[in-house]
Structures are given as C-alpha cells and as structure tokens.
UniProtKB/TrEMBL annotation:
InterPro entries tied to this protein: DNA-bd_HTH_TetR-type_CS, Homeodomain-like_sf, HTH-type_Tx_Regulator, HTH_TetR
Pfam families: TetR_N (PF00440)
DNA-binding region location: 34-53
Keywords for the protein's UniProt record, in alphabetical order: DNA-binding
Name assigned to this protein: TetR/AcrR family transcriptional regulator
Origin species: Paenibacillus yanchengensis
Positions of the HTH tetR-type domain: 11-71
Length: 178
C-alpha cells in the first residue's frame, strides 16, 4: 500500500511539472524559462524537481514524450515517411505553440527532442524498404536525411498555417527517395 501511494505521488508530481512547462512555454521562450518558474507554477519544491529531472531540458524532453505517447505513435518501427509526416503534422498542429518554440530554437538539444522520437520509426521503415542491416552507414544516412526532411517540412507547414488535409504534401513523402 505504501509503495502504491508513493507511485501515485511520483506520477502526480511528474504530471504537475509536465503541465507546468507546457503551459509556461505558451507564453515565454524556452530559453527564458527558469526551474524556479516551473516549480512555482507546478507548486512543487525545487528539490523535488531535481529529484526527477536534471534540468529544464530533461523535463521538456520527458513532457514531450509523455504528450506524444498519449496522442500519437511516432516511434512505431515501420512508419513510412508519409505516415510519420502526417502523424507529426497532426500532433504539431495540436500543439503549435510548443512546436514553434522548440523548432525555432537554434539549440540542438531542443530540436533533438523531436528528432530522437522520429528517428526510431523511420529507421525501422527504411531498413525494411531498402533491405539494409541495422549497422549500415547507409541506413544511418537515410534515417537522418528523412528525419530532417520531416522536421523541416512540419515547421514550414506550421509557419504557413498548412493543416493536415494537404494530400499534395503527403504524395511528396510517398515519392521521397534518397
């Protein structure tokens, strides 16, 4: 019973911190947000924050993963570039402020949050499609090229208010060969 209560408290604390960072980022640049602000918004002690997260980047990464796991499966092993883009664009439009913040930042650690999630799914699809072994440099290159293309086109769509109903863009990903 005690450990079950503790697990609920841990989940509650994490959820409060996830919600805090996602709410604050709607009104402030990520770079300007402090751990103190996050803790005050979540009504969580700063020491408790550091018990679960190394820094605000770690928190944002975990919050993003939690959010994406609830809404979309973007790390599925056999997701095609088209499906990855479609799922990613739906998710990005649902959380436009978050994506605009993360994708417009120049810091690799922020873009890396999204890149890491996309890589897994695309890698599996590309390995099968091109009959490449997992340790192939060609698979690494194809994965990085497709991941970059998906991220950059999603950002372009957000900047230009392009929604998910754009079949023409999806067709580009069907024919995207490197």
């Amino acid at each position: 019973m005690n450990s079950e209560k503790e697990d609920l408290r841990v989940r509650r604390t994490r959820t409060l911190l996830y919600k805090a960072i996602l709410e604050i980022i709607n009104n402030h640049s990520f770079e300007s947000i402090t751990v103190k602000q996050i803790c005050e918004h979540a009504m969580v002690n700063r020491a408790t924050f550091y018990k679960y997260f190394m820094d605000k980047y770690h928190l944002l990464s975990e919050a993003f993963r939690e959010l994406s796991s609830q809404e979309v499966i973007i790390s599925k092993d056999d997701l095609s570039p088209r499906d990855m883009f479609k799922q990613g664009l739906i998710f990005a439009n649902n959380h436009k402020n978050l994506f605009m913040q993360v994708l417009s930042e120049e810091r690799d650690s922020l873009r890396g949050i999204i890149k890491e999630e996309l890589r897994g799914g695309l890698r599996g699809h590309l390995a099968i499609k091109h009959s490449l072994p997992n340790d192939s440099i060609m698979l690494d290159l194809l994965t990085e090229a497709h991941t970059g293309a998906v991220i950059n086109v999603i950002f372009w769509c957000l900047e230009n208010n392009i929604k998910t109903e754009t079949e023409e863009i999806y067709k580009v990903f069907d024919n995207f060969h490197l």
